[in-house]
Recover the amino acids of this structure.
């Protein structure tokens, strides 16, 4: 006959066995995790980056040596006659060519108006600019060029758009400037002078 005491003893024995099994499992689990290992290997990539530079150079002839013309050392544009004795309605022409230097990155260049000086002739003058295929800037070449600044523009205004320049002098832009003394210039404009500076503003892209 099984007594209550026997049942209690059997229950305590089962409980001890379960605890022993659980404890053994925990010990085995910890031991297993501690002995696991993985081999590993890595590959690394690196690069050195260096910035480029942007530089445009210009020429008043479009041939030969192109050089820098910073502020204070502006290129003297060679206008056709009669730039030193203009009469109302006269138009004179001058070339200015630009490109990037041999070590330059690519970019854009835009004709902008710089300073206007002299003794007061500038308000009686207008100008236009076209790009031309060759380096001869005269009335014929100008007539066949592509408009950059529309004829009749005041000296104080610049171009609305820019032209693309390839890197390392990959292309040359020949600008033909046409400056006109208005046909209705007043008598008071006689004997006056105008000193105009244009800026060919280059920007890297």
């Amino acid at each position: 006959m099984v007594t209550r005491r026997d049942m209690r003893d059997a229950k305590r024995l089962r409980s001890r066995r379960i605890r022993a099994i659980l404890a053994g499992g925990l010990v085995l689990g910890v031991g297993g995790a501690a002995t696991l290992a993985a081999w590993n290997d890595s590959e690394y990539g690196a690069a050195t980056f260096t910035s480029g530079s942007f530089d445009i150079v210009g020429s008043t002839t479009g041939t030969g040596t192109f050089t820098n013309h910073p502020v204070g050392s502006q290129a003297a544009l060679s206008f056709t006659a009669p730039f030193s004795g203009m009469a109302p309605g006269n138009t004179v022409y001058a070339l200015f060519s630009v490109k990037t230097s041999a070590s330059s990155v690519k970019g854009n260049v835009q004709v902008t108006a710089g300073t206007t000086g002299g003794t007061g002739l500038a308000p009686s003058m207008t100008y236009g600019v076209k790009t031309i295929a060759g380096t001869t800037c005269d009335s014929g070449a100008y007539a066949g060029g592509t408009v950059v600044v529309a004829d009749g523009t005041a000296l104080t205004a610049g171009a609305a758009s820019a032209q693309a320049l390839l890197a390392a002098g990959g292309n040359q832009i020949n600008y033909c400037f046409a400056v006109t003394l208005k046909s209705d210039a007043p008598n008071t404009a006689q004997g006056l002078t105008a000193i105009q500076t244009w800026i060919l503003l280059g920007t890297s892209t």
Remarks:
- Residues 56-204 form a domain with the Immunoglobulin-like fold (CATH 2.60.40).
- Residues 4-35 form the longest helix (32 residues).
- Residues 17 and 182 are 116 Å apart (CA to CA).
- The first strand starts at residue 56 and ends at 59.
